[in-house]
């Protein structure tokens, strides 16, 4: 199956320039393509996965992807999809963000393949060398203000206001496409649907600055939407990051496994490399036994392995099983930190302590009287085991890896005791 047909079946094609020409170009050539990632944070989030995985899909189809890190454009800020201007970061911060993002992309793309290995580029390399007068004369003259004002990324900001800094972003991104065309014979730019105006502007710049007829193309992927109307990639705790320090592999796994039934098949098409036959079989599973959530588990498995690796998946599965069964003792300290990251916690010293006193000090029970009632009534669990002995004292045996004890009060109220 050709790459465009595969993408269409997955619902991943929003817009293309010269559809038939692009299909022919891809069928007859090893095509170099690129997608840009501006370093606006020290990690990518799951909203970046679709374009990153698009590069991987083209690579698996035999083409050569370029992951362009916006070390230069990141100093400016893309107005696309924004209602207000971004906060500008200094060069040191942007450089650090760029390095972190490149490391994450290296986990998704194959940079070592001898035939069509991915390439990482940073547009700070050439944008940082530009001289303002030369740039305005040689590049800016090809951009009519009316043409730029007509682009959606600018139109949507005119009412709120847009600075010249952001207004110039389109020209800089266009310069990137022209530069990669000249240096790497890059003939295709891909991106989110909000990048359509920037992509077509880059194509126009290439045509205007070349004497002969050139073949360059653009392709965008659709905006990801959720069936319940909420924004994709956001949780109560904020964005779902690819950095395991910002979003733990367990949280990452849980995000995908909790996908709405109405979205799970679409997300399997968008985010995994499962064949169409495998996805069709999972669709039938969903219809036959929705309560088993088999497609959801497969989605969570595929994405967790892709971003964090197999061991992280195993950890996430162990944490999930321990929380479901109540058998907390099977977890190690690292898994405790992931699984109970957001529960109330308190630090205590390691000496033996009566359980009644601990419940009061940790504010699990409101008073010693309440603590005794909670214990007597069977409402207190230590690392998953019910404890009803009023004279019980916590000891080393109750500390997982010598560091943590998990207290549960009732069915769902967890507390993490950290020992120092």
UniProtKB/TrEMBL annotation:
Its EC number is 6.1.1.1. SUPFAM superfamilies: Alpha-L RNA-binding motif (SSF55174), Nucleotidylyl transferase (SSF52374). A motif ('KMSKS' region) lies at residues 231-235. Residues 353-415 form the RNA-binding S4 domain. It is found in: Cytoplasm. GO terms for biological process: tyrosyl-tRNA aminoacylation. It catalyses: tRNA(Tyr) + L-tyrosine + ATP = L-tyrosyl-tRNA(Tyr) + AMP + diphosphate + H(+). GO terms for molecular function: ATP binding; protein homodimerization activity; RNA binding; tyrosine-tRNA ligase activity. Keywords: Aminoacyl-tRNA synthetase, ATP-binding, Cytoplasm, Ligase, Nucleotide-binding, Protein biosynthesis, RNA-binding. The keyword Phosphoprotein does not apply. CDD domains: S4 (cd00165), TyrRS_core (cd00805). One of its GO terms (cellular component) is cytosol. It comes from the Bacteria. Catalyzes the attachment of tyrosine to tRNA(Tyr) in a two-step reaction: tyrosine is first activated by ATP to form Tyr-AMP and then transferred to the acceptor end of tRNA(Tyr). Belongs to the class-I aminoacyl-tRNA synthetase family. TyrS type 1 subfamily. HAMAP family: Tyr_tRNA_synth_type1. This is Tyrosine--tRNA ligase.
């Amino acid at each position: 199956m050709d790459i465009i047909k595969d993408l269409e079946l997955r619902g991943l094609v929003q817009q293309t320039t010269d559809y038939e020409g692009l299909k022919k170009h891809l069928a007859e050539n090893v095509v170099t393509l690129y997608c840009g990632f501006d370093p606006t944070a020290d990690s990518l989030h799951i909203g970046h996965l679709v374009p990153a995985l698009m590069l991987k899909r083209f690579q698996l189809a035999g083409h050569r992807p370029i992951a362009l890190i916006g070390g230069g454009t990141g100093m400016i800020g893309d107005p696309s999809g924004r209602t207000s201007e971004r906060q500008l970061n200094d060069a040191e911060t942007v450089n650090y963000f760029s390095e972190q993002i490149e490391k994450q992309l290296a986990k998704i793309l194959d940079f070592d393949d001898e035939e069509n290995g991915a390439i990482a580029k940073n547009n700070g390399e050439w944008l940082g060398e530009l001289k303002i007068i030369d740039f305005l004369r040689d590049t800016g003259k090809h951009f009519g203000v009316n043409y730029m004002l007509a682009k959606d990324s600018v139109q949507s900001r005119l009412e709120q206001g847009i600075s010249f800094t952001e207004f110039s972003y389109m020209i800089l991104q266009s310069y990137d496409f022209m530069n990669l065309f000249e240096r790497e014979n890059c003939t295709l730019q891909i991106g989110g649907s909000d990048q359509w105006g920037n992509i077509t502007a880059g194509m126009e710049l290439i045509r205007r600055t070349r004497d002969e007829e050139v073949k360059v193309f653009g392709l965008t992927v659709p905006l990801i939407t959720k069936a319940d109307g909420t924004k994709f990639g956001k949780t109560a705790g904020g964005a779902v990051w690819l950095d395991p320090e910002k979003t733990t592999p367990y949280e990452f796994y849980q995000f995908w496994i909790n996908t709405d039934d109405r979205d799970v098949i679409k997300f399997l098409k968008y985010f995994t490399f499962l064949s169409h036959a495998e996805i069709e079989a999972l669709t039938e599973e969903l219809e036959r036994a929705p309560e088993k959530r088999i497609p959801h588990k497969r989605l969570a498995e595929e994405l967790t392995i892709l971003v964090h690796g197999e061991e992280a998946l195993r950890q996430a599965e162990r944490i999930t099983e321990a929380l479901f069964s109540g058998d907390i003792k099977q977890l190690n300290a690292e898994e405790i930190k992931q699984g109970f990251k957001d529960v109330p916690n308190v630090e205590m010293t390691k000496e033996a302590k009566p359980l009644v006193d601990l419940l009061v000090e940790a504010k699990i029970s409101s008073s010693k009287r309440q603590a005794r009632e909670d214990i007597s009534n069977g409402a207190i669990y230590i690392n998953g085991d019910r404890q009803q002995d009023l004279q019980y004292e916590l000891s080393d045996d109750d500390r997982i890896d010598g560091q943590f004890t998990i207290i549960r009060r009732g069915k769902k109220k967890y507390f993490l005791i950290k020992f120092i």
